[in-house]
Amino acid sequence: MQRSLVVSIHDVAPATRARVERIVTQLAQSGVVRCSLLVVPDYHHLGSSLGDERFTAWLRELEGKGHEIVIHGFYHQRSPRVGQSARQKLLTSVYTADEGEFFDLDYEEALRLLRKAQREFAARDFHPVGFIAPAWLLGAEARRAVVDAGFRYTTTLRAVSDLAAGAEFVSQSLVYSTRSKWRRVLSLGWNRTLFSCLTTNPLLRLGIHPPDIEHQAIWRQIRAVVDAALRDRRAATYRSWLAEHASTRHETSNIL
């Protein structure tokens, strides 16, 4: 199985479309012709993303070119809870700026939002097989709802979970934090080191957020990572990578 690079673009919505378009265009210039696009159904309660016909037509065009549509949370926002622990505050406020929506949802609410998202996407002839929680924060009850909603896969910061096959593939994603100067400086150093540690990993993952393209040093490193990775990898989506992995596993079992 050929080594792969999966680039995921997070927080795709009408409000972020201009930046995402620039990202997609520049990645294509570097050879990444298909990405996993993490689409938020109702980004920050600004209204249905797919209710925007121009946005929906644009997504359909990208899907036709080989990009994958993935459901990414529902509102991508989490209200602070009364009485939450220090760990909860750290993960949901400091780490992710109150966007860890599926971190501690109960099963019923998580399933309701997942089903609602699936209906909205299906009504416009999109049929995503993947669900990825905002900030990769997916609690146990919400994860159970993802399985019961019939999603093929999900991902965390450190792994890709093939829910259909019951398999997990360890691959930590490169990802940047741009909310402050010190975060950007740490991100550059951390991702430089992480990339060097992952050169032999069959799957390399790179997560991009819309603000990344506005920071020259961050974007320059992202382009350098992509250029280096594509010397001996090919660009894939999560969906295509899992399908290829399943096919390879099936062929191997037949040989044995």
Quote the CATH topology: TIM Barrel
Number of E strands: 9
Shape: globular
> Number of domains in the coordinates?
1
Give the radius of gyration: 18 Å
Order of helices and strands: EHEHEHHHEEEEHEHEH
Distance from first to last alpha carbon: 17 Å
Report on the architecture of this protein.
- By secondary structure, the chain is α/β, with parallel strands linked by helices.
- It has one domain: Alpha-Beta Barrel (TIM Barrel).
- The two termini are 17 Å apart.
- Helices cover 43% and strands 16% of the residues.
- The strands form 2 sheets. Strands 1, 2, 3, 7, 8 and 9 form a 6-stranded parallel β-sheet that branches. Strands 4-5-6 form a 3-stranded antiparallel β-sheet, with helices on one face.
How do the strands and helices of this protein lay out in sequence?
Layout: E1 4-12, H1 17-29, E2 36-39, H2 53-64, E3 68-71, H3 86-95, H4 107-122, H5 140-148, E4 153-155, E5 159-162, E6 167-170, E7 173-175, H6 181-197, E8 203-208, H7 216-229, E9 234-236, H8 238-255
Parallel strand pairs: 1-2, 1-8, 1-9, 2-3, 7-8
Antiparallel strand pairs: 4-5, 5-6
Helix pairs in contact: 4-5, 6-7
Summarize the structure.
The protein is of the alpha/beta class and 256 residues long. It has helices at 17-29, 53-64, 86-95, 107-122, 140-148, 181-197, 216-229, 238-255; strands at 4-12, 36-39, 68-71, 153-155, 159-162, 167-170, 173-175, 203-208, 234-236.
List keywords for this structure.
6-stranded parallel β-sheet; disordered C terminus; TIM Barrel; alpha/beta; 8 helices; 256 residues
